[in-house]
Every structure is written in structure tokens, then in C-alpha cells.
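Key result, reporting period 2: structure in, sequence out.
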């Protein structure tokens, strides 16, 4: 089957789905092609914090109705060190907030609106293959239920994540990602229990980092720093709750455990492609860059990229390609600020794992206690954190 569109979008994650809405609002034809089933896409538990800038973008396209009804607005976060808990008050410091609303919910809202609009979104596509993206006649080839599709497009967008196909069609000497590996990972759990805190707690402990977040008034999301190679089978629910209790412990406060409904390990890595543009192919979101999760920037960066790219593609479809020509440079300039912040948060709140020499762990722990003592007593440091956590402008 041969089809033609203006923008072929690979991937129906938050980046691909939002880009579809921006193009729909601008009257630009598009097709979204996703290799997993819709149910699978909706079942992935990932990020949960939306910057003010992300909420603003979803508002701009009328996609935030349920988010405003069900999302939890947080005016700050807690930083904890040596059992002392300190509230960083974003509203007071920078007059901005963040909203706790699961990535799955964002994706569901974006999918439902595409259903209402009757948008062309293919799920369960096989062998998705971008072709001729560096020429004048780009194509996307894929199979649906055994039928071969050949989609011709003016532009192809790779919104297919870090393990997607689009970044692999860019020659290695052009993509040239700058990377950093981290010596730790996160064990994340979802639990059917009311959160024991009103706002997110980020805690540094001699055993490593722990975090208490949430998804709703009755569902908690918690994370523990673990070594990258650990086996989930070694982490029973009881062991997880004991470690969380220990690392998040603070005088006069108790953590209420509950049934764990999901467990997973997230490795940590930073990677930023040298360019997000190759011929008629543009990368957005995780396809172009990933950050360690501390500070919750991955999802927000993906939404920011497609805001820039969507506006540029709408202008390009109307005949002006100058914004598209500068997309990669503008998105990467913003991305490197996000990389800096995510690295800063990660380094401040993690120590080397148990396999590191004890003297190195001790030094790193002590220096991070010093750093947290500084941040929790300096208004300037808190303002810097608040400005970045609530989200840089998308411009
Ligand atoms: P994705 O959400 O990855 O979407 C890409 C889509 O493309 C997927 O639906 C995928 O199935 C599809 N796809 C892949 N290959 C192909 C192909 N060949 N053809 C067609 N479609 C394809 N961020 C945080 O801020 N906080 C967190 O706690 C957090 N936890 C995370 C946990 C995990 C396990 C992972 C992987 C990421 C996590 N992130 C977190 C990062 C955040 O979820 C991502 O930054 C965000 O999902 C990026 O959105 P995206 O649309 O760019 O990519
Ligand atoms: C969550 C994830 C993060 O990476 C973070 O910094 C804060 C909260 C979450 O999943 O709720």
C-alpha cells in the first residue's frame, strides 16, 4: 500500500503523540507509526513529574483537562540528608510549580484526543524502516498485519526513543553521541498505598539514594539506588520496604508500606547526539538524548523538543524552513542545560555502590553531605535548583 503525507512520525510515545497534535492544530498532514501495541505503550510505567513548561504546552493545545482535574500540583520538593528533611519551596523561590501526573496518563490523554480527531496512528508495525532521508524523497516502510506500507513524506521525525530505528540510520560520524555512564541504577516500585508524604522526598543516605514520589492520593512511587548489575529476584518486597524505611527515615516520620504492584530497574546514562537533524530526518526526545532520571527531565525534554520541532514543521509546511534549519541547534542548546542539571542532581544525591573502595564511598558521601548542607542553607542555590526543576523556557 502506497501513501503520502507531510510528516511521518516514528514512535507513539509522548514525543510522537504530542507532535501529532501540534501538526493537527497547524493543519499539517501526518502519520504516526508505532511498532508496539497500543496496550503495551500504555502499560509502561515511567516518569511522573511535569514541569510548569510542559503543563503550559499541553494547555496551549487543549490537552490538559484531565491533568488539571487529577494531577497533583506540587509547590516544592524535600531534600533529605542525615535524616534532616528540608523543603525547597519553588512557589516562594521562583513563583512556579510542577505537577505530578504519570507519563501513562499523559500518553492516554494524547491517544484519546487522536481517537477523537481520527488521526492516522498505526500500532504494532513491523520492520519500520526509514529510507532516503538524506535525499529529496524520504520514505517510511513498515508492515501492518502482513501488509507492506510505503509512506512517502516530506519530513521524517524519529520520536522512537533511545533504542529506536531512526538514530541508527544516521551515520556514526554524524550522530557521534557524547555519553556518560553512571555507576548506579534505580530500582523503582509502584505500590497501592497512600503516599507517606505530600511532596516528593529526595534522600541521601550512607547506603545510597532513595526517593518517595507518588502517582495519586492512593498510589506511591518509590525508588532505591542499586548497583547496575543487581538481579530483581534478590529484592523481595520486604527487603525493598526495609531499605526504603532505612534510607528515607527521619525523626517523627514513618513510611507506610503496602502491596507492590510493579518493580523494575532503570539504568542511568547520559547520551546526547551531536545533531538532531540529518537531511529530512529530525530526532526528538529520547531518540536524540537521554538523561539520568534524578530531577525528572526525560519526559519534559521530549515534550520541549516536539514543541520546537512542531512549530518549525508547521512553518516549513507553509514555506518557511528557517526555524527547521535551526531546530537541532536550539533543542541541543536547551538539552545541554538539562544534561548539566540532571548530572548535578544525580551526583549530589548518589554515592558509589558497595563494590567501590570504602574510603572512596566515605569521601563521596561526606562531600555530598556538605553539598546538601550548602544547598539547604543558601537561597541562591535553592533558587537555581527551583528554576531548573520547574523547567526552563521553551524558546
Ligand atoms: P519513548 O517514550 O521511549 O517513546 C518512543 C516510542 O517509540 C515508544 O512507544 C516505542 O515503542 C516506539 N518505538 C521504538 N522503536 C520503534 C521503531 N523501530 N518503530 C516504531 N516505533 C518505535 N524520565 C523521568 O523523567 N523520570 C522517570 O522516572 C523515568 N523513568 C524511566 C524509566 C524507564 C524504564 C525508561 C526507559 C525511561 C524513563 N524515563 C524517566 C524517561 C522518560 O520516560 C522518557 O524520557 C520519555 O519516555 C521520552 O519520551 P519519548 O516519546 O521521546 O520516547
Ligand atoms: C519521579 C521520577 C523522577 O525521576 C524524579 O526525579 C521525581 C519523580 C517519579 O517517577 O515520580
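The corresponding designed sequence is given below.
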Amino acid at each position: 500500500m502506497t501513501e503520502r503525507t507531510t510528516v511521518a512520525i516514528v514512535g507513539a510515545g509522548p514525543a510522537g503523540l504530542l507532535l501529532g497534535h501540534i501538526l493537527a492544530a497547524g493543519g499539517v498532514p501526518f502519520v504516526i507509526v508505532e511498532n508496539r501495541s497500543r496496550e503495551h505503550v500504555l502499560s509502561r510505567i515511567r516518569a511522573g513529574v511535569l514541569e510548569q513548561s510542559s503543563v503550559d504546552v499541553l494547555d496551549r493545545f487543549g490537552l490538559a483537562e484531565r491533568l488539571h482535574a487529577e494531577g497533583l500540583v506540587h509547590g516544592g520538593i524535600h531534600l533529605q540528608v542525615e535524616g534532616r528533611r528540608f523543603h525547597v519551596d519553588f512557589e516562594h523561590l521562583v513563583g512556579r510549580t510542577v505537577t505530578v501526573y504519570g507519563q501513562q496518563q499523559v500518553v492516554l490523554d494524547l491517544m484519546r484526543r487522536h481517537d477523537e480527531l481520527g488521526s492516522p496512528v498505526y500500532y504494532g508495525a513491523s520492520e519500520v524502516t526509514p529510507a532516503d532521508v538524506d535525499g529529496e524523497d524520504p520514505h517510511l516502510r513498515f508492515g501492518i498485519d502482513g501488509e507492506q506500507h510505503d509512506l512517502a513524506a516530506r519530513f521524517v521525525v524519529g520520536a522512537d526513543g533511545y533504542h529506536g530505528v531512526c538514530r541508527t540510520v544516521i551515520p556514526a560520524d554524524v550522530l557521534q553521541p557524547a555519553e556518560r555512564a553512571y555507576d548506579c541504577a534505580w530500582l523503582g516500585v509502584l505500590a497501592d498505598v497512600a503516599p507517606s508524604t505530600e511532596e516528593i522526598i529526595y534522600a541521601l543516605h550512607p547506603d545510597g539514594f532513595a526517593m518517595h514520589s507518588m502517582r495519586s492520593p492512593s498510589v506511591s512511587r518509590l525508588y532505591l539506588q542499586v548497583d547496575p548489575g543487581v538481579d530483581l529476584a534478590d529484592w523481595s518486597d520486604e527487603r525493598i520496604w526495609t531499605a526504603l524505611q532505612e534510607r528515607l527515615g527521619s525523626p517523627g516520620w514513618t513510611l507506610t508500606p503496602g502491596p507492590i504492584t510493579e518493580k523494575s530497574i532503570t539504568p542511568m546514562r547520559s547520551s546526547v547526539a551531536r545533531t538532531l537533524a540529518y537531511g529530512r530526518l529530525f530526532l526528538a526526545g529520547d531518540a536524540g538524548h537521554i538523561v539520568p532520571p534524578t530531577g525528572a527531565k526525560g519526559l519534559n525534554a521530549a515534550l520541549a523538543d516536539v514543541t520546537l520541532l512542531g512549530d518549525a514543521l508547521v512553518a516549513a509546511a507553509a514555506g518557511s524552513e528557517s526555524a527547521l534549519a535551526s531546530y537541532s541547534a536550539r533543542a541541543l542548546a536547551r538539552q545541554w542545560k538539562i544534561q548539566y542539571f540532571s548530572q548535578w542532581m544525580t551526583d549530589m544525591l548518589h554515592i558509589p555502590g558497595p563494590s567501590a573502595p570504602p574510603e572512596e564511598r566515605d569521601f563521596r558521601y561526606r562531600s555530598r553531605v556538605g553539598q546538601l548542607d550548602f544547598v539547604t542553607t543558601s537561597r541562591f542555590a535553592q533558587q537555581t535548583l527551583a528554576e531548573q526543576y520547574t523547567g526552563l523556557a521553551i524558546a
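The pocket of 3,4-dihydroxybenzoic acid (ligand 2) is lined by residues 47-49, 200, 213, 221, 293-296 (CB under 6 Å). The radius of gyration is 21 Å. This case is discussed further under Risks and Mitigation.
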